[in-house]
Amino acid sequence: RTRFQEPMVLCPFVVKSLERGERVVAQGTCSDVGLARCELPSGSFTMKLVPGEELPFLATSFDLHVTEDGSFAPREHSVETKSADVAVNLITPDGLPAAGCTFHLSPKFGGGG
């Protein structure tokens, strides 16, 4: 999830074994609610989230541990979102600069900054 608690929808992922020389043991795409589902044996793994350019997330990886009884940790992982610097120029309907106009921007998600 992002810091705004948004899920990583449809993000590709790859799971590599830490015990078998970084061999890929699973890969797939997160669901429409952000769940990464795959079958793994017990052991230690690295999960890499590899979003495409069109997704608003940054690539990341984290260690994943699966026990003999099938439980695993961590159950969730926070990811960073992309950000961009933008310039806002207000213009009149005639296409001229709208000097002295005030406007307000508000975040789409709660929490801000």
What do you see in this structure?
It is built from no helices and five strands. By secondary structure, the chain is mainly β. Strands 2-1-3-4-5 form a five-stranded antiparallel β-sheet, with no helix packed on it.
Could you write a compact summary of the structure shown?
With 113 residues, the chain is mainly β.
- Binned, the helix content reads under 10%
Ranges where pLDDT stays below 50 over 5 or more residues in a row are: none
- Describe the biggest sheet? 5 strands, antiparallel
Number of strands: 5
Could you tell me the radius of gyration in angstroms? 20 Å
The whole-number mean of residue pLDDT values reads: 86
Question: What does the oligomeric state look like here?
Answer: single chain
Percentage of residues in DSSP E strands: 15-25%
Strand order of the largest sheet: 2-1-3-4-5
Overall, the morphology is: elongated
Keyphrases for this structure?
113 residues; mainly beta; five-stranded antiparallel beta sheet; 0% helix; elongated
Note the topology.
Blueprint: E1 12-17, E2 24-29, E3 43-49, E4 60-66, E5 72-73
Antiparallel strand pairs: 1-2, 1-3, 3-4, 4-5
